[in-house]
Amino acid sequence: MWFGTQNGLNRYDGDSIKVYRNDANDTSSLSNNVIQSIYEDHLHNLWVGTQNGLNRFDLYKDIFVVYKNIPRNKKSIGGNSVSNIFEDKKNNLWISTLGGGLNLLNRANNTFEHFRHNAADKNSICSDTVYCIFEDAGHSLWIGTDLGLELFNPSNKTFTLITNPFGKPANIINYIQQDHDGNLWLGTSYDGAVVYN
């Protein structure tokens, strides 16, 4: 069992706890001690999002492979503050960042496709501050940002902003879930829960 804390990643094996922390002298250590997300993909890789980098844990070597933004490398991850990690039904691994937009990992070559806000393109994502990713029962991909809820169209890679009548506080969306009736429940930072149907 894994626990993310503000001071490292904890692994509990039923008997004892091992804590993984950043070691400035070890490039295979955890990239940062503030854990913001943990996700296990269909290949049983453990992904850890921190305030400063994305990490893939190598279970056999007991080390971390670190992915960080490299300013001059357009194929590196878009930002280092990783808020959410999510794998869709097609096994695409999505990474949301705070300031670096939405990222899609190409597992074959460990590169990233970026989805960033472009003021000149109304179909681009509305903000580079992305908090969460969710796939509904119909396999639509929803994105929660600091400016509202977005629906992603994979065929043309465009975004549609879903406006709500509750004002700006309700647009800071940290969490998305779907109930049995198909309604989306949105957890917001300052305005409680909002139901979208």
Short description:
The protein is mostly beta strands. It has 2 domains: 1-68, no CATH class; 70-197, Methylamine Dehydrogenase, Chain H.
Describe this structure in words.
With 197 residues, the protein is mostly beta strands. The protein has two domains: 1-68, no CATH class; 70-197, 7 Propeller (Methylamine Dehydrogenase, Chain H). The protein is built from no helices and 18 strands. It has strands at 2-5, 8-12, 17-20, 35-40, 46-50, 53-58, 63-67, 82-87, 93-97, 102-106, 111-115, 130-135, 141-145, 148-153, 158-162, 173-178, 184-188, 193-196. The strands form five sheets. A four-stranded antiparallel sheet has the order 4-5-6-7, with no helix packed on it. A four-stranded antiparallel sheet has the order 8-9-10-11, with no helix packed on it. A hairpin with a 5-residue loop joins strand 4 and strand 5. The chain is globular and about 50 Å long.
Overall number of domains: 2
Assembly form of the protein: single chain
CATH architecture annotation name of the largest domain: 7 Propeller
* Low-confidence sequence ranges: none
Number of strands: 18
Order of helices and strands: EEEEEEEEEEEEEEEEEE
**Strand residues, percent:** over 45%
CATH-defined superfamily of the largest domain: YVTN repeat-like/Quinoprotein amine dehydrogenase
Helical/strand content category: mainly beta
The rounded Rg comes to: 17 Å
The largest pleated sheet is described as:
4 strands, antiparallel
CATH topology of the largest domain: Methylamine Dehydrogenase, Chain H
Strand order of the largest sheet: 4-5-6-7
**Apparent shape:** globular
